[in-house]
Specification:
Mean pLDDT: 78
Largest sheet: 8 strands, antiparallel
Helix content: 25-40%
């Protein structure tokens, strides 16, 4: 009971470690290692294209009766000559102020997407993050189109589209860029596939405009598909990125779910969904497909040992001869900017994975964002918000601090009691309890305030770790990237020194073993935090310095009594 401070420090360190360990245990992949993935790719061949059923695209259903239709596989289409790595001439290039995209005329689908404002590493500004790629070893592509019933020709992702231009660029005075593709069946069905890009935007509007100039009705269903290679990251405490979930996720209109690929290999995910979306996420970035919210789509997610595929197909809609209709959807390719994600779909910010403490982390991020909008520097924002949190818990930490100060004041008397009863543990405990009672000191008084704060500390940890808004953000002097470790380890050393002085303000544990543990903690934490992002260390340094100031003041007040 007289060493709660020691226990709480060790507990906090253990909670951080256990959080990482549990995260690894929950999401560590048990699928094929890279060598087996490469073998699977070689067996498939570079131009291999699975039929639509093995890709996870559901069969069409009769909208009126619910009767399952017999539909052709995509290989039955006369124009289907699929290739995962088409020649450059098959691409239409689209450039905005934030995206450099290539759209394949085969399917008129997004096949390549580079983020112009996000370098892979800050010291290599010309090497940019790519979200989509047709390369089989890095495959991540969209497949979108329309399925047709009754064995009719269909503008699916293997149909060849035409475009008037090979290069589109958002002009300086425009906030919007339209990119149009056309497809016409042999019988006269005309389809215009339109992508709408916006300035500063990573969401892309997709629209189909259909004119039925055939002699009979055409029944069509809109589908979205995202196919990506699965490359599990090796878990390491020195690589914080490896603790972010990397893989397929879905939102079924009610709950958000991260899907394990080994489970998908055994049994694909299947569900009818309204108001949902599908996405492939990684640390800080994602690609997502968002069907119209008011319509029911059939979702399916599968994994074949190398690639995972997320699919959504809507209900059949009949287009009478001479009539027109349209279909729409939204795609997102870019960083997990929460404001933009929320504008696409209210629940899409769930892809910013704060874990089980999201209920605390989301408000913390909201406060950080508001402060940043005023300050304009994420480093100062972290310091200010840490101060705000400290003020919120001031009374609670004051209770803990007073308990520690009183314990420190009783330290000489406690040592005398220990010397007197060093050979009688029962008498020692009884004498210590009588002293606490006589002096009105509760050694457990500081426990509850500290325990209440621990979830907030961990939530702040995940906010700083997961928020792309702080990626590669500079602070001051040598700290040029808050998302990377301090290059000179200055902040971790300051943190270790702060923890050492903080210990000096607290009572020394009477137990020699616990005293040694306490003396080693600053070294352990310094070594652990040396490889953590500088933003996390800045938060901890700020919190430690504020705690030192508060405890110093409390010690003076209690000492004067």
């Amino acid at each position: 009971m007289d060493n709660l401070r020691v226990i709480l420090w060790v507990g906090l360190g253990m909670m951080l470690w256990l959080t990482m360990t549990k995260w690894q245990a929950q999401f560590a992949p048990v699928t094929a290692p890279p060598t087996e993935v490469s073998q699977a790719l070689s067996e498939q061949g570079p131009a291999a294209e699975p039929v639509v059923e093995s890709d996870g695209l559901p069969d069409l259903h009769e909208a009126e009766t619910g009767r399952e239709e017999e539909v052709p596989t995509l290989h039955d289409q006369p124009a289907a000559t699929p290739s995962l790595a088409p020649v450059e001439a098959d691409f239409v290039r689209v450039r905005t102020d934030v995206l450099d995209v290539k759209i394949n005329t085969l399917g008129a689908d997004l096949q390549s997407a580079t983020l112009l404002q996000y370098p892979v590493h800050k010291d290599k500004p010309n090497v940019l993050v790519s979200i989509l790629s047709p390369d089989p070893e890095q495959l991540a592509v969209f497949r979108t189109g329309l399925r047709a019933a009754d064995d009719l020709e269909e503008p699916n992702h293997l149909a060849v589209y035409q475009s008037d231009q090979k290069d589109y660029q958002l002009s300086a005075g425009s906030d919007e860029l339209l990119v149009s593709f056309t497809w016409v069946s042999s019988t006269g069905l005309e389809v215009e596939k339109i992508y709408r890009f916006g300035r500063g935007r990573y969401d892309i509007q997709l629209e189909y405009r259909i004119r039925n100039k055939t002699s009979g009705p055409y029944r069509l269903a809109n589908y979205l598909q995202l196919r990506r290679i699965y490359r599990p990251l090796e878990r390491s405490m020195f690589n914080v990125e490896s603790y972010s979930f990397n893989g397929p996720v879905i939102y079924d209109g009610e709950k958000y779910e991260k899907l394990k690929v080994d489970d998908l290999a055994e049994e694909p995910y299947k569900q009818s969904v309204a108001g949902g979306w599908l996405a492939a996420i990684q640390h800080h970035f994602l690609a997502a497909a968002v069907p119209p919210g008011e319509e029911v789509f059939r979702y399916q997610v599968s994994y074949d040992g190398a690639y995972y595929t997320l699919s959504a197909i809507g209900q059949l809609e009949t287009v009478a001869p001479g009539a027109t209709t349209s279909f729409s959807a939204q795609l997102f390719v870019g960083p997990k900017l929460q404001k933009q994600l929320a504008e696409v779909s209210a629940d899409l910010p769930l892809t910013v994975d704060y874990g089980k403490l999201t209920i605390l982390a989301q408000p913390l991020f909201w406060i950080l964002q508001k402060v940043f909008d005023v300050i304009g520097n994420w480093g100062w924002t972290i310091i200010i918000v840490t101060l705000m949190i400290k003020l919120v818990f001031y009374k609670l930490t004051e209770t803990s601090g007073k308990s520690m100060a009183k314990m420190r004041k009783l330290q000489p008397r406690l040592k005398a009691i220990q010397e007197r009863y060093k050979d009688d543990r029962a008498a020692l405990s009884q004498a210590m309890m009588e002293l606490y009672k006589r002096e009105k000191v509760n050694p457990a008084a500081g426990c509850l305030p500290m325990l209440i704060q621990i979830p907030f500390f961990i939530a702040f940890y995940w906010v700083l770790l997961e928020s792309v808004e702080m990626r590669q953000a500079p602070f001051l002097l040598w700290i040029t990237d808050l998302s990377e470790k301090d290059p000179y380890f200055i902040l971790p050393l300051i943190m270790g020194a702060a923890m050492y002085f903080q210990q000096k303000l607290n009572p020394t544990p009477p137990d020699p073993i616990q005293a040694k543990v306490m003396s080693v903690l600053p070294i352990v934490f310094t070594g652990m935090f040396a490889f953590f992002p500088a933003g996390l260390v800045l938060y901890w340094v700020t919190n430690s310095l504020l705690t030192i100031l508060q405890q110093w003041r409390i010690n003076k007040v209690v000492g004067a009594d």
